[in-house]
Specification:
single chain, 170 residues, Aminopeptidase, 5-stranded antiparallel β-sheet, 8 strands, 34% strand, binds coenzyme A
């Protein structure tokens, strides 16, 4: 199911055959530098299963990003429910794209489309992004879609806090 469209992209629900193209994203060390590291084929298949469960459980989740002209899956951008971020529930806007597509504005375009879907269709009132302060590209995407730094959050097992960027529905 398509949830959002942008000038050059559309975003749709993940399906069972997406795990191969998604491996190009999750299997690339540079793409996974800020995250949990390179993942295996099995992990990606399990991730696809978790996405399908999240649509059922939460009513939203991660969406795959498809480049319209080539009909090519280039990554994901979507919504993640966190029951406790510094003591309150939050919805995170998260994104990760194949390295070959970086620097062409796709990250910003996808994040804008998901932000609009979250506010205008799902009627959410607030979104956050939790970003390693060294992840300049991700910070810029957050800023370019109107998010602003609010605070830090420290998750168990992490060595340094993430920065929490926030946008409220206007
Ligand atoms: C974050 C990510 C999705 C951005 O995608 P993208 O398509 O390259 O982003 P855009 O082309 O829309 O660029 C957005 C801004 O970031 C800047 N940018 C992109 N890559 C950059 C880099 N490596 N270093 C510094 N700035 C960078 C761009 O110049 C642009 O800013 P500008 O308009 O002021 O020039 C992509 O880099 C990625 O998938 N990274 C790995 C996964 C990840 O870290 N995800 C976030 C986890 S919190």
């Amino acid at each position: 199911m398509v949830v959002a469209t942008a000038k050059r992209l559309f975003l749709r629900h993940v399906h069972i055959l997406d795990s191969e193209p998604l491996y190009r994203v999750f299997g690339d060390a540079e793409v996974m530098r800020f995250g949990d590291g390179v993942q295996t084929h099995d992990w990606v298949r399990a991730w696809v299963g978790r996405c399908l469960a999240q649509y059922q459980q939460w009513g939203f989740g991660p969406y795959v990003v498809v480049e319209q002209q080539r009909r090519e899956l280039i990554g994901y951008c979507g919504l993640f429910y966190f029951p406790d971020v510094n003591g309150q529930p939050e919805v995170e806007l998260g994104y990760r794209l194949a390295r070959s597509t970086w620097g062409q504005g796709y990250g910003t375009e996808a994040a804008q489309a998901v932000r609009n879907y979250a506010f205008n269709v799902l009627c959410l009132s607030r979104l956050i992004a939790m970003i390693d302060p060294q992840n300049t590209a991700s910070l810029r995407v957050a800023e370019k879609i109107g998010m602003r730094y609010e605070t830090e959050v420290m998750f168990a097992g992490y060595t340094r806090p993430d920065h929490v960027y926030v946008i409220a529905r206007s």
